[in-house]
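Cross-posted from the bioinformatics board.
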Amino acid sequence: MRSKATLLLGSALTLGVALPSLAADWQALPDQAPSPADNPTTKAKVQLGKTLFFDPRFSEHGTLSCNSCHNVMAGGDDNRPNSIGMHDARGGRSAPTVWNAAFYSVQFWDGRAATLEDQAKGPLVNPIEMGMGSLQDVLGRIDKIPGYKPLFEAAFPGEAQPISADNAAKAVAAFERTLITPNSPYDRYVKGNKKALTEQQVRGMKTFDSLGCTSCHSGANFSGPTLPIGTGFYMKFPTYPGSDYDAKYQLTADQGRFEATKQEADRNLWRVPTLRNIALTAPYISNGQVPTLDEAVRVMAKTQLNKDLTDAQAADLVAFLNALTGEFPVITMPRLPASPNMSVIPPVDPHLKEKPHG
Amino acid sequence: MRSKATLLLGSALTLGVALPSLAADWQALPDQAPSPADNPTTKAKVQLGKTLFFDPRFSEHGTLSCNSCHNVMAGGDDNRPNSIGMHDARGGRSAPTVWNAAFYSVQFWDGRAATLEDQAKGPLVNPIEMGMGSLQDVLGRIDKIPGYKPLFEAAFPGEAQPISADNAAKAVAAFERTLITPNSPYDRYVKGNKKALTEQQVRGMKTFDSLGCTSCHSGANFSGPTLPIGTGFYMKFPTYPGSDYDAKYQLTADQGRFEATKQEADRNLWRVPTLRNIALTAPYISNGQVPTLDEAVRVMAKTQLNKDLTDAQAADLVAFLNALTGEFPVITMPRLPASPNMSVIPPVDPHLKEKPHG
């Protein structure tokens, strides 16, 4: 006896329906993100995490907070090819959006952090990002800001030493787990509101599926299947090397996960990124060299599926991807606790280049 | 017949009360700031102004908003000696707080702008601040962000061309007029709550008056008398040159208002700054070279009043100044309107210094 799936497959083939459209499992975004057993999301933790996330004093010169490159007032990134860190330094990769990052099973473009907690510690001490000498230096500044003590105590009640790098990272991760954008037109459509998408967006959705985009960009977050935390969903990029795009956008200059692991099997592997709110996060691709979403869908179709899009296909896909822009929660600004009568930012700056009339 | 004032003066002298304490006119901060006839504060204007204030896309590299150096989540400045602009540039002056700036009759340290509206345009095109080539370039970016159009239309209803540099400046000024911090312990004290200040703070308040600090730092904003808009309240700094502080903190390197006017009479003249929330805005003095509030009161007493403070006097003054920290209104974060599918920040960057592993 044939299984139901085989029967369906048979019907699909009979009806001339392309296989991938059957395979697609369209999922709406959950309203809440899961939290790990050792870091349940609490209101006090979110409040502390939000405060830390917006506090620029944990960068060498006191000028960059997490939000500087992951701007939650916008698409959760900085709309730049790469971010600008201390001393005007630039990285080779584009800041990924922090919105819905809670749904990834690994963090960073190369998956080198398993959790949001691990990720949160990285940029603080990266010399081309926030540039702090060490996490101990960060804690030294927190210690000089009396108002942080009650926030840490409320977030981690009963702990003998609530102020620690691990707890700061837990709080930032807890805040990030609240950064969810449900109820996009796409979500409302798959929940049953057939008027939520325009005709062009529905066409784009079918094209997205039939071309094979869903083979990587699947699941509620369009970043692949749900895997255990620490297990990344990686793809080779470009899967079809040799197109003109390789040189035009330097697609192979950065070896992706290989740069982190030095394992040959990881060469040119990248975590499959979410497509949620993708319309807001130009420029595109891990190096931020592709300026528009129209160009990005063409680059991806060619490099990953070996397909040349027609103008109509590209336009439909872009229309569909615009339907992935969700609802952003209202966030109140945190009050950054004071270090009364002094600044925690070191006054001596060897890079001082003073000019008059500031 | 002697006037009531003279009678009171006589009584004061009889009682041995120092003259300045009688002269002091302690005023609470108003809950609202006045708005000019040609720019009445409206909800729609404040909303637009807040959005512009937090939008980093109106800086050359898309990295700095007004809030970067005038952080309203903190004391309205950046707790740095000077701010860091495009290309890692530094100015010679410390960012003044935006909180209660609405109560000044002139803007900038040297009063070179009459109004908040005029001031708002300056940093955008200052090459060592936000570094935009021109206000026209700013408008060019606004035009590429469709979501700004309805915000401008709502803020300036009925206008044929609502999007303009003047209107953007008006909106930012309208938002800034909401940045008021009433109900500090000092305010509650002068309104009649005698328990609002500690004993030390009351001592500091009397010292502040008897030493003569009130001769400059008077009025509700502690920045001098209320003068017509465009008429600044300036003082010479140092009034008593020659102390060791001159060299230690380079007090005469910047000639103040003279740098703007080139008038000899303006040499070393500075707008008298507010002392509200001064505990939050270290480091101090126009060049940000004085690290602590304790040191700042000593510097000011010596350079402006030719007095050497005792440790007790300095501590009392610092305690009093801490009573000028007010209540900060809750502000919700604006959603920055999107430029879907592209970035308005130019992708070509002649200063690109790429490094791997961003």
